[in-house]
């Protein structure tokens, strides 16, 4: 007679980086996993994320430490194959608006105080640190963070899904808006309108900005500050710029295929919601963002917007990540954070370990969903 414990069955709701990462790490831990998505993989926030890998600026110490560990996991992945064009570590460049030099210096000093690699640069010295940047655009005082990088989350999700399939994970796409099944006060699976129900010992809710609404049906409040935002992908253009740039009028990062990904927030008031729940923005606003980005690049090349995606960007109400089991619904775990790219690998790893072992990880202690109760 076998005395082996039955395999733990986990249903993961969400096909973005947090859901996919958690699912793969659960499989590595020996669990059986069904990954359920409303539409396609990476069709939500992960498909329109600037995905800048960083812990720049000021934040709480636990959040900074978790982000640094997140970057470390990406460095391990990068070291395994530095030729990947969807994961790079070529630094980050930041400057603020006119008259903000004092704030920039204070940010640099703060970063240096906790040993975050930070260098003050001027327009005349910026290209000593990173190529292809227009000296005319750079702020009088800027910060270059050499250890930062970027990732294309759709490419990363495709990469992780190869392992997911090889380890026997079950993928269900186009399931529609799902809800968590609860029996006897405990999570018991996921119910979907298009694909039926999936029984499980535990459930992970990792569906980006929809996460607070999903757990609200369980009587759990997670404060939500998710705004509507846009990511623009340009047509291919040959240019030597390598770094991620965060500037007053455009955020820019390189992207596979000699393209650039563009983001910011000044245009948010130009976004309108349609009757079917989708979002629209005037094309001239998209082109204005592309023009602002071009000004940052040496030679000011023409940047043409090839495509753009609009949707809600997941941000918890207090700005801090949300990871862990719901106190009032045992067996239901949540992963909800603005820094989904930076925390994608480490967040999935730590949450999966908590689910399988039942032991809470100390690095997630301040990020529990119960803090909103």
Percent of residues in β-strands: 15-25%
Cα distance, first to last residue?
46 Å
Mean pLDDT: 96
Sheet/helix structural class = alpha+beta
CATH top level class name of the largest domain: Alpha Beta
Entry keywords:
Alpha-Beta Plaits, globular, FAD/NAD(P)-binding domain, 3 domains, 25% helix, oxidoreductase, FAD-binding oxidoreductase, alpha+beta, 6-stranded mixed β-sheet, 373 residues, 22 strands
What does this structure look like?
The structure is a single chain. This protein folds into 3 domains: 9-47 and 154-225 and 317-372, FAD/NAD(P)-binding domain (3-Layer(bba) Sandwich), CATH 3.50.50; 92-146, no CATH class; 228-311, Alpha-Beta Plaits. It is globular. A hairpin with a 3-residue loop joins strand 11 and strand 12. 46% of the residues are buried. It has an 8-stranded mixed β-sheet. By secondary structure, the protein is of the alpha+beta class. Helix content is 25%, strand content 24%. The longest helix has 20 residues, at 61-80.
Could you give a short description of this structure?
Keywords: Oxidoreductase. The chain has 373 residues and is an alpha+beta fold.
Write the layout of secondary structure elements.
Elements: E1 9-13, H1 17-28, E2 32-36, E3 52-53, H2 61-80, E4 87-88, E5 92-94, H3 101-113, E6 119-121, H4 126-129, E7 142-145, E8 149-151, H5 153-166, E9 170-172, E10 179-183, E11 186-192, E12 196-199, E13 202-205, H6 211-216, E14 228-234, E15 244-246, E16 251-255, E17 259-263, E18 272-273, E19 279-280, H7 283-294, E20 305-312, E21 322-325, E22 332-336, H8 344-357
